Amino acid sequence: MRTYALIGNPNCGKTTLFNELTGTSQHVGNWPGVTVEKKVGKLHSKYGDAEIVDLPGIYSMSSYSIEEIISRRFIIEEKPDVVIDIVEATNIERNLFLTCQIAELGVPMVIAVNMMDEAEKQGDKFDFESLSGMLGLPVVPITAAKAEGVHELMGVVGMSGLLEEIENEAEHKEHVGEDEHGHGFQDIEDPVEHRIDHHTDSKGRTNALLSEYKYHNHYRGPKTYQAEPGESLAVEQETNNAERRYAFIGEVVKASVVKGKQVGERTRSDKIDKLMTHPVFGIPIFLLLMFAMFHVTFSESFLFLGIDSPGVWLQGLAETFIGWLGGALGTLFIEGSWSYGLVIDGILGGVGAVLSFLPQILVLFLFLTLLEDMGYMSRAAFIMDRLLRTFGLSGKSFLPMLMGFGCSVPAMMACRTMENENDRKLTLFLVPFMSCGARAPILLVFAAAFFPSNGDLIVMLLYVLGIVVAILTGFMLKKFVFKGEITPLVIELPKYRAPKIKSVGISLWQTMKDYLRRAGTIIFVMSVVIWFFSSFGFGPDGFGMVDIEYSMLAVAGEAIAWIFAPCGFGFWVAAVALLTGIAAKEAVVGTLGVLLKVGEEEALEGGALSGAVLASVGFTPLSAFAFMTFTLLYMPCAAAFATLKRESNSWKWAILQALYSICVAWIVATVVFQIGSLVGLA
């Protein structure tokens, strides 16, 4: 099977094209030996038969970042059949710099000039024949978001791969003098024509594709100094290469592109940014958008009309379904038997409690995905840079921290792009304080149970609290541990664009798959284990099934519950839930579901984990808020802890973060509960 590699600058539409080419036939992993994300997919049948590798978004092929090293190494060592270079039509000068560097490696390459619809809107005109001729490479205009030109692109890509294959065969036969049948080299032309005809599609593009052959792998750019494998160029050579490339790019663009707007003319994005990134209004707008996200997800008074928000309404439907499922499954077992307890109280109680919040998780991630697709997330980092610099931090830290709202693991991986080692280790330390998606079920449960009328404000307050704790922690570390200059933030602000329905859908599908996978593995196993230890113990008649207060889990929980008494939740159920949360934060909800038997029909009435059910073990609104605070701040899950150790290359740094976060969580939760008790909120 052929392999095609996608490469391009950040924000060039590479992910959109990857999603179009693969649909949902893609998987995410890590590059061998590093923790940078790797996306691989199988080409959709309508575009051919090949594997697509999505290389990291980079600006150049130098060796300053791990992404650049990965891309260069993959192209040179793995030798993909064709490299598809995505060039943003509205920013072609900068994008062509990477094009020149890739072409200099002498690999089969096709250029896809993307976002042609935007270029046409601003009046840009392209002479693609001239552009292709001057570069000496096939060039295809596309608009990936609308799938325009993608068929033509893949036709040229397929032909380029085929022609490269034929060239290799021709070289081989030229050396040998005759093929395996004894025919001379001159006989190769007939099979070549036959194979090209075989790959021609129904629209008869043979001539168009063949016309690209004269440009195939014949890059016409400037001669540059090339480093030997494993070596780097001197600064003077790098500068000389850059000057030659930019001079060549200037000639190419001047001859093949007519700009519709004058240099320096304000675009629509510039006008919007005048408000969105305003020194005064930027942060209030950011907070307003956050509130809107939580309001749509958590509020039981949507738009203050007294009706459920979309998130709450969908979560109610999920609870109703799980309640019906529990009732249906309950008829298959004898109530009170171990099998009934395992299936209804254990599996359904734990997994069902977590799954009931899947709709709200998807609503939350939908909002985050829309903000990212529209180009706002880069603005959020930009406006927060001003605030962070006040505390001695770099705005570069806020990008991984924003990613931490989704999951701490990829957020920590994103720290790899930070050049300054101190800033990188500092950011790794701060990321776990962001409320990740795995913590969302905990906040959802307690907000719905104890703060139904203002759950959105409560959850937003906790998210902001995580940011504040991270900033204050960073300030102390910068003051006493990582002393030095603040690294300036240099970031590209992409143009504002309408979200792409397909890309958003694929992102949500991946989120749902990951959530269901965790529910079907980690939470399932944890639920079974928790049910066993909460159902068995040593009673008067020896070891066997006992009431939950005499179980092994209750005995172990009581032994450590006193630690959390100052925090307001010094009872064994809460203590055990926090312990299981170290494995996975969703397990906190799953554990409560098992221990409080929410799989049983009577517990499901009025909500899987209703206020009445939680109050029965000792929770009050104040202690519930303190519990939410603790789960927000205490050590990350096992996967995030392992990633922190791997990224920092230090057990000491990972353990220090875990211990520090537990101490901070205990102190903040205690302060919340004790002050609340003093003012009469208990």
Describe the model.
This protein has two domains: 2-258, Rossmann fold (3-Layer(aba) Sandwich), CATH 3.40.50; 282-489 and 499-678, no CATH class. Helix 5 (128-135) packs antiparallel against helix 9 and helix 20 packs across helix 27. By secondary structure, the chain is α/β, with parallel strands linked by helices. The N and C termini lie far apart (66 Å). The strands form three sheets. A seven-stranded mixed beta sheet has the order 2-3-4-1-5-6-8, with helices on both faces. Strands 7-9 form a two-stranded antiparallel ribbon. It contains 29 helices and eleven strands. Helices cover 58% and strands 7% of the residues. The protein is elongated.
Secondary-structure topology with pairs:
Layout: E1 2-8, H1 14-22, E2 26-30, E3 37-42, E4 50-54, H2 66-78, E5 82-88, H3 92-103, E6 109-114, H4 116-121, E7 125-126, H5 128-135, E8 139-141, H6 150-176, H7 189-198, H8 206-211, H9 235-256, E9 257-258, H10 268-276, H11 282-298, H12 310-330, H13 338-355, H14 358-374, H15 376-390, H16 398-403, H17 408-413, H18 421-430, H19 440-450, H20 455-480, H21 501-535, E10 536-539, E11 542-545, H22 552-561, H23 572-580, H24 586-595, H25 601-604, H26 611-615, H27 621-633, H28 638-648, H29 651-678
Parallel strand pairs: 1-4, 1-5, 5-6, 6-8
Antiparallel strand pairs: 2-3, 3-4, 7-9, 10-11
